[in-house]
Amino acid sequence: MQSNSASAAPLEGAFSETQTVSFDLKKTVPWILFVIFFGVLNETVFNVSTPKIAEQYALQPSGVSWVVTSFILTFGIGSVIYGKLSDMISLKKLITIGMLIYNVASLLGFALQASYPLVIAARALQGAGAAAIPALIMVIIVRYFRVEDRGKVFGMLNSTAAFSVGVGPVIGGFISSRLHWSLLFLLPLFTLIAIAFFRRVLPDEAPKPGKVDIPGAVLLALGLGLLILYLTDTRPYYLIVSLALLLWFGLHIRRAEEPFIDPSLFAKRKFIRGVLAGFILFCTVMGIMFVIPLMLNGVHGLSTGAIGWILFPGAISAVVFGTVGGTLADRRGNPFVVYVGLGLLTASLVLMSALAGQTPWLTSGALLLTYVGFSFIQTALANSVSQTLAPEETGVGMGLFNLVGFLSGAVGTALVGKVLDKRLLDFSLLPTVTLPSAFLYSNLPLVFAVVILLGGAVYTSAYRRG
């Protein structure tokens, strides 16, 4: 049975066991969704503006990609850092600091647009601040909302995030084409009005004594940063140094008194399999989202603005059906919702494969199933993973889950890019696809479907009983 309010269990683990907090879902959730929308928006809102940015600074594609990559890198690493800090410092203080950093960086990016290196620095600082929003919102849900309400809230959260990612290119394309791309830096300023709300409703938690493992955080950040750099600029020494740093990080956390990531997390089989399933599934979906605009342009010759509108119906549908997925997760269990999502995703990929080369609006219809299926999977998978964690592990555990999600986007995009560059699947396979320019874009979804089923098998191995 659903409730209109969520009374938290006593705070455990990192904070006082006698303190409780009660949230009214109707009043709290809209603010959560508001800040999530603007927190996630910056992942994609600059994507369609890269040609104009490259033109202004006379950059090659590999150079301008750092407008996106610098944000994603600090966003991903920051999600783990905020998660770790949330076990020691009050959420009220952390979310205030993160949102202030986000907005100061946004103002700096707009003011310093004459210098591309400073724009990149501002984007990186934006990511460091924006990371506080999804990371700490997840901790708030896991720490303060009842288990029976989490699925519903996660559903609304993930549907809003999916909508934000989907509508980002539409907003970015409109502002860049009608005004100037630098105005995109000012969009996060809307989040300032939410700070007062969070400072009012979040409790004054007594912090747990502890310290942040700075060497561990640096090793992880550098290792992952070089890995992402390797994925965008495939020079072998980037990969070698990255793997060496990540190995060093693994050895470090086993010896550190208070490691950045507790090695015991890696011994939790359900948690690790959930994270691995998330990596496989998110990697594939990000690959799909990367290849669809290229297909619409390469096969149909659509402009950036037209592509945004083809993607828009799916993004809208995610808002509605993400909530449905959360409600189903509460009533029927997380595995049921994951399997429904897998079915919808697989069906959408088969349709896209068979319809490649046909009118773009048929692709738009197939993408409805993609967005709905992905929102179902995101909701139920986050809920499944959160339930494997002890209260004192939720901050860093969900932060790590978020980080893997961000990395999967970079990996999926890079791998699909390599396939497209080498045209590995450019041959006729399905009789329904007769346009030679569509062969490659028809075969890729079939590969995606196989990988989706692999991710589903990994999930099933850990969570088939709920």
TrEMBL record:
The entry's keywords: Membrane, Transmembrane, Transmembrane helix, Transport
Stored InterPro entries: MFS (IPR011701), MFS_dom (IPR020846), MFS_trans_sf (IPR036259)
Pfam families: MFS_1
Transmembrane segments: 29-48, 63-82, 94-114, 120-142, 154-175, 181-202, 214-231, 237-253, 274-295, 307-329, 336-355, 361-383, 395-420, 440-462
Record's subcellular location: Cell membrane
Membrane topology: Multi-pass membrane protein
Major facilitator superfamily (MFS) profile domain segment(s): 28-466
Principal subcellular localization: membrane
PROSITE patterns: MFS (PS50850)
Identification of the protein by name: Tetracycline resistance protein
Organism: Gordoniibacillus kamchatkensis
